[in-house]
From TrEMBL:
Residues 215-237 are annotated as: Disordered. InterPro entries: ATPase_AFG1-like (IPR005654), P-loop_NTPase (IPR027417). Keywords: ATP-binding, Cell cycle, Cell division, Nucleotide-binding. GO terms for biological process: cell division. It comes from Amycolatopsis oliviviridis. This is Cell division protein ZapE. It comes from the Bacteria. It holds the Pfam family AFG1_ATPase. Residues 228-237 have a biased composition (Low complexity).
Length: 344
């Protein structure tokens, strides 16, 4: 019988939550030199330069005389040389912002941390605010991927956390997503980010990364869903793969904090989902967005039966307030389905 994700209930200790704050496997080997700017989008080449300069400032500060812990506690961190301590990468999905963020992380000196917005909120909930500040203040640099504004409480929590960390001398870089070619509509832009962290806005520089979604530039659409027999054959041919009924997985994800979805996939080589269909409501949809992000982070190919991947979210959902998330998820899942369709 093939393994099932629904049989896994991963747990993370407080220490594991900290040590797990590193780039996911897909971005473990990326560097500025491996980022390929779109020649039609000059902002992409400029972003490589800006991110490299930011990483250099982190390194330069690390080489200066360290501040005392007492000065850090009361906001006496050294001033960053020739630039702000924060960097916000502003752009649509599929332009390589996470590649640039991870490259910046790789170029900065240790100790450093890399996590998603969801992972940070979970960290604070697990450790408590004061302990999370203490642990993260020991780092020189914190990278935050997928910064979200959907929950005002979480936004305030992370903003307060960043205030404490920047006061302690920690550099911070963050990404989020905007809709390509959709100025205004559903857009998460630099203006929104800076408004929500207004007390910190002067501490952040903005780096624009424009362009179309590279994951589908000149590539075919998602492959058609597999037949039940094809799905089972794929699972049998790939050791360490999993097979789950779509509805059962959706129910299982509802019982896990999204910060555990990555650990749920540890050691998995390919995910198979039977009978996918448009999701029934927003809560299920947003859990699947987080699951899709962790699948993509780990470059795990996806095989599905049932409805095509692009129909996973209803037209009403895609045109609603979480439009950017659903489009990103479809983009990433399509790329993973395409990976699974490639000859082994």
């Amino acid at each position: 019988m093939p393994a099932r994700l629904i049989d896994r209930r991963p747990e993370l200790s407080a220490d594991e939550l900290i040590t797990a704050l590193v780039p996911p496997p897909r971005f473990d080997a990326v560097r500025f030199s491996t980022y390929v700017p779109n020649p039609d989008e000059p902002s992409q080449a400029e972003a490589v330069v800006d991110c490299g300069a930011f990483a250099k400032r982190v390194a330069e500060t690390a080489n200066r005389k360290p501040k005392s812990k007492l000065r850090a506690l009361f906001g006496g961190g050294d001033e960053a040389p020739s630039g702000p301590r924060g960097l916000y990468l502003d752009g649509g999905f599929g332009v390589g912002k996470t590649h640039l963020l991870a490259s910046t992380w790789h170029e900065t000196p240790s100790p450093k941390a890399y996590g998603t917005f969801v992972e940070l909120t979970h960290l604070v909930g697990a450790l408590g605010f004061a302990e999370a500040v203490r642990r993260l203040s020991e780092h020189r640099f914190l990278a935050i991927d997928e910064f979200e504004l959907d929950d005002p409480g979480d936004t305030m929590l992370v903003t307060r956390l960043l205030q404490e960390l920047i006061s302690a001398g920690v550099f911070v870089a963050a990404t989020s997503n905007t809709l390509p070619d959709k100025l205004g509509e559903g857009r998460f832009a630099a203006a929104d980010f800076l408004r929500e962290i207004q007390s910190l806005s002067a501490k952040f520089g903005v780096c624009r990364v424009d362009g179309p979604d590279y994951r589908h530039r000149g590539l075919p659409d998602a492959p058609p869903p597999a037949s039940p027999a094809e799905l089972e054959a794929s699972a049998a041919a790939h050791p360490e793969s999993t097979v789950d009924d779509f509805d059962a997985l959706c129910d299982h994800l509802g019982g896990l904090h999204p910060s555990r979805y990555g650990r749920l996939l540890d050691g998995v080589t390919r995910v198979h989902l039977r009978d996918i269909h448009p999701v029934p409501d927003q809560n299920v949809g947003l859990r699947l967005v987080a699951f899709a992000d962790r699948l993509y982070d780990r470059a795990i190919p996806l095989v599905v039966s049932g409805e095509p991947v692009p129909l996973l979210f209803t037209e009403e959902m895609v045109n609603g307030g979480y439009r950017k998330k659903y489009l990103r998820a479809v983009s990433r899942l399509t790329a993973l389905a395409r990976d699974a369709a490639q000859p082994s």
